[in-house]
Backbone:
DNA sequence: GGTACTCTACTCAAAGTTGAAGAGAAGGGA
DNA sequence: TCCCTTCTCTTCAACTTTGAGTAGAGTACC
């Protein structure tokens, strides 16, 4: 899964209607050019592909002043919005070793209801755990331990990073459960709100 | 930088001469199919490209039994070996958010002299540190802290992962300095060796 | 001795990514 | 006014990656 689709879809969604350069600027303002593969080429390409697949609707705009490049505005479709949510869920849940996917997911996390966000992050924890197990298995089969030599350092690296990822995820879950940020369907900025009624049965 | 070139070059180097399928199996035996993008398509493609660029030499093998696909064996060239070392150094040093590059680097680290390995990892530490700084800068400019909202979680994620990476790197440096593993130019399996004479001026 | 499975070995079209470049408009100073 | 730079907006060729497909050869069962 590439982060670009999620990023582009999310950016267009925010604007209602946007052309490539706006999307570009949006992503830049989020710092996305630092941590993702979203460069002009990829973005314009993604816009075209998404339009071809019916997830965006392309409107050709004839430039009023005559001259200038033919610009195209894009609008998100119903299917596009669905795809956005589905990519977002996938990004939060999956242990994809590429951090840009996760970062994008975090960037859009407030577009989900608070409860779902927590549930997805908990699913993420489980998958991390499971993957950690599969790594240690793969590198310590029946030949006994310590036979690996320096290649065992690769396993070490992955385990270390899985643990760090899990720790970060737990921190985020905690902050969200404590009422940080404003999620989909919530109105008030949640500063110092007491536990909400509908929320007292978390972890159910 | 893609991990595939390094991986393929390293695999061919080990064998002296290898065809695509051997490389594939090699990588699989290192678990590389789990943590890298090295799939059959990428590997065959990389072999062809590397040959085209003069880093590998292609030998067409006419199949003895007549029939079967036309297989090609590859041999590493002098320039290929140089490129291998250069990619390896880059992989160890660069903070490339893709872990497959680092993993490949670790997998080949013993093909460098012990001293150089340590030096490169120390360089890596510095770069991580520097990058960590640039992330916190980007997300906390002049608008005062705490204005970020949930997007600040992205920064949190990156900082967390930079710290985890640094910690792992320090651990590896320590193990290497303590004599673990056998590096380029060393003969004996280094169990319990005392500090070597040529090595007492590390950190110079 | 057929048929089903797995292993060896490679190819290809479609999609994604990179890095550079193109071309008009807008500002600003000599 | 003319030139220079910077900003807006997009395209393109070259390269890489993906995911599925092709195809022969061993082997193993019943």
Residues:
């Amino acid at each position: 899964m590439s982060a670009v689709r999620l990023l582009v879809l999310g950016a267009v969604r925010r604007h209602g209607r946007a052309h490539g350069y706006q999307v570009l600027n949006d992503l830049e303002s989020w710092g996305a050019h630092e941590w993702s593969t979203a460069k002009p080429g990829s973005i314009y390409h993604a816009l075209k592909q998404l339009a071809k697949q019916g997830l965006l609707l392309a409107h050709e705009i004839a430039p009023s002043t005559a001259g200038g490049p033919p610009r195209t505005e894009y609008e998100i479709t119903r299917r596009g919005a669905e795809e956005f949510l589905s990519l977002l869920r996938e990004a939060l849940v999956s242990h994809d070793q590429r951090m840009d996917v996760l970062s994008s997911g975090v960037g859009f996390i407030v577009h989900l209801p608070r409860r779902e966000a927590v549930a997805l992050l908990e699913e993420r924890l489980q998958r991390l755990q499971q993957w950690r197990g599969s790594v240690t298995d793969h590198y310590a089969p029946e030949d006994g331990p310590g036979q690996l030599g320096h290649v065992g350092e690769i396993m070490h690296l992955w385990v270390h990073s899985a643990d760090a990822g899990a720790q970060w995820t737990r921190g985020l879950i905690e902050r969200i459960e404590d009422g940080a940020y404003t999620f989909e369907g919530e109105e008030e900025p949640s500063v110092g709100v007491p536990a909400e009624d509908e929320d007292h049965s978390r972890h159910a």
